[in-house]
Amino acid sequence: MLQVTELKKVFKSGDTKVLAVDDISFSVPDGQFASIIGRSGSGKSTLLSLLGALDKPTSGHIMVGDKDITKLRDHALISYRGSKIGFIFQSYNLVPNLTALENVMLPMEFAKVPKKKRQERAKKLLDQVGLKDDKQKRKPGRLSGGEQQRVAIARALANKPQLILADEPTGNLDSQTGKMIFDLLQDLSRTEHTTIITVTHDVSIAGKTDVVFKLQDGKLIKDK
Ligand SMILES: Nc1ncnc2c1ncn2[C@@H]1O[C@H](COP(=O)(O)OP(=O)(O)O)[C@@H](O)[C@H]1O
Ligand SMILES: [Mg+2]
Predict the structure, then answer these.
(1) 44 C-alpha vs ligand 2 centroid, how far in Å?
(2) What is the pLDDT of residue 193?
(3) pLDDT band at 224, cuts 50/70/90?
(4) Ligand 1 pocket check: which of 19, 40, 42, 46 to mutate, most ligand atoms within 8 Å of Cβ?
(5) If you count DSSP H runs as helices and E runs as strands, how many of each does the chain have, helices first?
(6) What integer pLDDT is reported at residue 133 of this predicted model?
(7) At the top level of CATH, which class does the domain 2-223 belong to?
(8) What pLDDT, on the 0 to 100 scale, is given for residue 32?
(9) Residue 191 pLDDT > 90, yes or no?
(10) DSSP secondary structure string for all residues of 90-152
C-alpha cells in the first residue's frame, strides 16, 4: 500500500512561492494501476518525483509499505530508488552508447546481480515487452520511439520494483503506439502485481486505469 498524507511541496524563488503540491492525501493499494491527470503546471511531475524520492517534500508523509520514504537519508534513499522503484519517462532516458540489452542490465549491475543472471533476466524482460532478438543488440539511436519505450519499461522492471512511476510515458508516441505501450503497462500491473502510477494528458488512457487522481493548482480535486 502506498499512502500519501498531507503532502506539500513549496518552491521559493525570491519573494514568490509556488505551491506545486498543496496538501495532498490519497492511497493506492498494491497492484493497482493509477493515473494522475491535470493541466500543464498542475503539479503532476512534482508529485511523481516526491513519490520516487527524487525530491523532498516541504511537509507531509509518504508511506510505502511500512516505510516513510520522506525520512530516508543518503544510502537508504539511494537504495530505495534503485531497488523499490522503476521510473519511466516521456523521453525514455536510455543510455545512448549502450545496447538495449545493456541498458536493461544496468540497474541490476548497481544492485550487484552477477553478470550471467543480469544477461538472462534482461533478455527475458526484453522478450516480454516484445523487443525482438536482433533489436536487443541495437543502441537506442537505431530503435523507434515505441521500441525505446519498451526498453525503458524492461529497464524499469529489472530489479522487480514494488512501484513503477511513469511520467507521460506515451507523450512522444503516436496514438496507436501509445496504446500498445499503455496495454503493456496494464498487463504488467496484472501479471506482476506491480503498483503503477502514470501521469498522462490522455483522458482516454486515464479512463482505463483502476483509479484517476486529478490535480488542479497543486490540489487533488477528485478521484474516481
Ligand atoms: N524546480 C522548480 N522550481 C520552481 N518551480 C517549479 C519547479 N518545478 C516545478 N515548479 C513549478 O511547480 C508547478 C508544478 O509544476 P509541475 O509539477 O512540473 O507540473 P506538471 O507536471 O503538472 O506540468 C508549476 O507552477 C511549476 O512552474
Ligand atoms: Mg510534467
Answers:
(1) 6
(2) 85
(3) low
(4) 46
(5) 8, 10
(6) 95
(7) alpha beta
(8) 94
(9) no
(10) TT----TTS-HHHHHHHHHHHTT--HHHHHHHHHHHHHHTT--HHHHTS-GGGS-HHHHHHHH
Atom of ligand 1 nearest to the CA of 42: 22
**What atom in ligand 1 is closest to the CA of residue 48?**
17
Taken as a whole, the chain contains a residue count of: 224
Residue 169's nearest CA partner among 203, 128, 197 is 197
Q: Where are the domains of the chain?
A: 2-223
DSSP states of 1-54 as a string?
-EEEEEEEEEEEETTEEEEEEEEEEEEE-TT-EEEEE--TTSSHHHHHHHHTTS
Residues with CB in 5 Å of ion ligand 2: 44-45
Q: Point out the ligand 1 atom lying closest to the alpha carbon of residue 49.
A: 17
Residue 130 makes CB contacts below 8 A (sequence gap 6+) with 150, 184
Does 190 score more than 90 pLDDT? no
- Grid cell at residue 135: 533489436
8-12, 66-70, 133-137: range with lowest mean pLDDT: 66-70
* Cα 184 to Cα 207: distance, rounded to the nearest angstrom: 16
Residue of the nearest CA to atom 25 in ligand 1? 41
